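Predict structure. Input: ATP-binding cassette domain-containing protein, 239 residues.
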Amino acid sequence: MLDINGLSVRVGGQAVLDGVTTRVDDGELVYLLGRNGTGKTTLLRTICGVIPASSGRILIDGKRFTDLDAPSTVIGMHLGMDGAHPGHTARRHLTWLARAGGIPTGRVAEVLDLVGLTDAAGRRVVDYSLGMRQRLGIAAALLGDARTLILDEPVNGLDIDGIRWLRGLLRDLADEGRRLLIASHHLDEVARTADRVVVLDSGHVAADAPLTEFIGGHTDLEEAYLATVAEKPTAGVTV
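Output follows.
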């Protein structure tokens, strides 16, 4: 289980997250929703140990990130499409990650095939399309075969075939018993696959409920979401 309790984060003296509490259980596909600047990316980066928490607790399989013996095999992360050196090939990038994380390099070929990049594995990342870079980032997240997966806007840049592929992949991963937390603005995709949604608004949890319960008596997910968040611009740090 991924367990987040009372998490607060301050950036430049300003509160970006304030008392965030939620969890992701085994086999759950949970989407993190919210306007730009409400703290979604900060939450994901804090879970992954990139940003320090000001207070609160994050446990992954009962351990803090800093106490994990082999983090790459416990939590897989895709936090943006700029993680690979543009001059490297996809194969070289993933091989470097595998060696750094203590993962058998034979896993590289497996994830390249899983994300559909086998034929392009020898091409430099600088020559990749946006969608191909998304696939490479997802491959990196899957490299350690982790049970906890954190993805930040993985649909961006994918064409219709890529979106359908990702939709099936995410559902399959959850059905295998993995736990997934995904930030997304694509409500159509959320409505198709989510088990539960967590809505952030101004750094607080505005809603946390199973998808069907969250939609409730509203016409659709979009209407339920708009009814949940305040209709006002978000001020402060955009994260």
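Strands lie at 2-11, 14-24, 29-33, 55-60, 75-78, 148-152, 179-183, 196-201, 204-210.
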